[in-house]
Amino acid sequence: MNDKKPRVRFAPSPTGHLHVGGARTALYNWLFARGRGGSFILRIEDTDLSRSTDESIQQIISSMRWLGLDWDEGPGAAGDHGPYRQMERMDIYQEAASALLDAGRAYHCYCSPEELEAARTVARQESRPVVYNGRCCGLSSSELQTMESEGRQPVIRLRTPREGFTVVRDTIKGDVQFENSTIGDFILVRSSGVPTYNFAVAVDDARMGITHVIRGDDHLPNTPRQIMLLEAMGEEPPLYGHLPLILGADKTPLSKRHGASAVEEFRKQGYVREALCNYLALLGWSFDGETTLFSIEELVEKFSLERVGNTAAVFDGEKFIWMNGHYIREMSEGELASRIIEYLAGSDLAGLPGSDGKPTVAELVPLVQEKMKTLADFAALTDFFFLPLVFEEKALGKLMKDANALPVLESVVAAITSLDTFSLESIEERLRAEAEAMELKLGKFLQPIRIAVSGKTITPGMFETLAMLGREESIERLKAAIIRLAQA
User: Fold this and answer.
1) CATH code, residues 389-487
2) What residue spans in the chain does CATH classification 1.10.1160.10 cover?
């Protein structure tokens, strides 16, 4: 198996958005396949009929595509091992179950829920493992007829060994052994005909030729059952690698209570795919213990399962936002403008940049790129160029309490009105001179101007902002602030 080109799969259950834990699993599988010339398969495990939805499938696919994690086989990608939704593979599971029944490796179980619960109660009272007691594994023909005449709908169970151990050879955790007596004859096919999770996974991994299973360690308890199934079917188990959990700052599993925990949420908050892939790669894997910034090409080249740790990783929001800011600052202005336009689609600013003489995104990017940590920061820094002026409460309070605000604004109106040309250079030269004449530090001089024209305390550079607004709009906003101050 080690000589084969790897075939790995990401197999989400479509019960919601793609969680960052699932995204990291997908990323590790993708990196492993791409770095070794193998195949990456997307398989939708939708046998949980009460929770799986088509909407979730589309959300998962959208998040995967946004991250750039393309698949060689799966939904929308032709392959020789489809279909790639489990509920479309029912005939395959029926065939596999029939083969196990014919070989005597599985059997029909007619026990009712009440009988199963009674048996579990006895097991607890006797301090025995709470597993199926094997009541139906040796029913006689007459007993089978009686069960069927009562209208009982059977499930199918696997015959499992009662003694010994099943060992999971795990490339991350090492060998992990499970006592067979604690597993029991588990269900393969429900009475409804729908396969259980473990049965469908084992059949699919075998039929799809999966060589390596890389997934979260919450699946580790399922692995001995899947190994038993593969061996019963005469298949060689893949190599396993179970990834450690991702925790929040409070050291509990990352969830919504920690803030954003799904790829789509981070996307909506203005994070970029390069930063998310880079950061997720570091949640459990390290190249040299020091390097933190990796392009996707570098991750493909350097990633290996051998360097994945065995301890839970903590999601550090501050480090992630720092990394996101780094990627934004490293983008070309054209690329960043393109990302911002895409991000603004559907927002209050959609279609406004560049309309009716307003500045374009491309014109504003040089003014704000160094200040941005997320794509959302663009709107926060520039919305006053496009939307009716609204004063932030904190900013308005500063303006009204600034004893220098009124004389500063009056001097600025006079200064920029008298300029022969309204350019960045002429604005900067004149306002520096005004600040010096009023014996004010430049920052203190510019602050009331900033608030008057933007309603904010943090904006792009003030000289650039006035030049971008234009003389007429700048004077109009400054005069409105003067009136407000005079009436206070």
Assistant:
1) 1.10.10.350
2) 256-383
Nearest to 281 by CA among 260, 265, 304: 304
The CATH number of 256-383 is: 1.10.1160.10
Closest by CA to 401, choosing from 431, 442, 444, is 444
Q: Tell me how far CA of residue 281 lies from CA of 254, 320, 329, in angstroms.
A: 16, 12, 21
Give the DSSP H or E segment for 214: strand 212-216
Distance CA 385, CA 364 (A): 10
Q: Is the pLDDT of residue 196 over 80?
A: yes
Give the span between the Cα atoms of 92 and 86, in whole angstroms: 9
| Model confidence pLDDT, tens digit, residues 250-307 | 888 887 677 678 999 999 999 999 999 999 999 999 999 899 999 999 999 999 999 9
Residue range 341-351, pLDDT digits in tens? 999 998 999 99
Mean pLDDT over the full length of the chain: 95
The alpha carbon of residue 409 and the mean position of all alpha carbons in its chain are separated, in whole angstroms, by: 48
- CA 121 to chain CA centroid, Å, is 42
- What's the first-to-final CA gap in the chain, in angstroms? 80
The residue type at 108: H
| Rounded Cα–Cα distance for residues 80 and 92 (Å) | 14
**How many angstroms separate the CA atoms of 333 and 438, rounded?**
37
What does the block give as tokens for 343?
Answer: 């991000």
Q: Name the CATH architecture for the domain at 94-189.
A: Alpha-Beta Complex (3.90)
Q: Report pLDDT for 397.
A: 96
Tell me the pTM.
0.92
CA-CA distance, 461 to 463, in Å (whole number)?
A: 6
Which residue, 246, 241, 219, is CA-closest to 172? 241
> In which residue ranges of the chain is CATH 1.10.10.350 found?
389-487
Helices (H) and strands (E) in the chain, counts: 20, 11
**Cβ pair 195, 98 in contact under 8 A:** no
> Which phi and psi angles does 174 have, rounded to 5°?
85, -165
Catalytic center residues: 256
Cβ contact 6:29 at 8 Å: no
Helices (H), 241-295: 263-268, 273-281
Q: What is the DSSP code (8-state) at residue 243?
A: E
| Helices 471-487 and 462-469, axial angle in degrees (round to 10) | 110
Sign of CA dihedral 302, 61, 266, 244: negative
Q: For the chain, where do the domains classified as CATH 3.40.50.620 start and end? A: 7-74+199-247
Domain with CATH 3.90.800.10 in the chain: 94-189
The architecture that CATH gives domain 7-74+199-247 is: 3-Layer(aba) Sandwich (3.40)
- Cβ proximity of 443 and 461 under 8 Å: no
**CA 248 to each of CA 82, 259, 273, 323: distance values in angstroms, whole numbers, following the listed order:** 37, 9, 21, 18
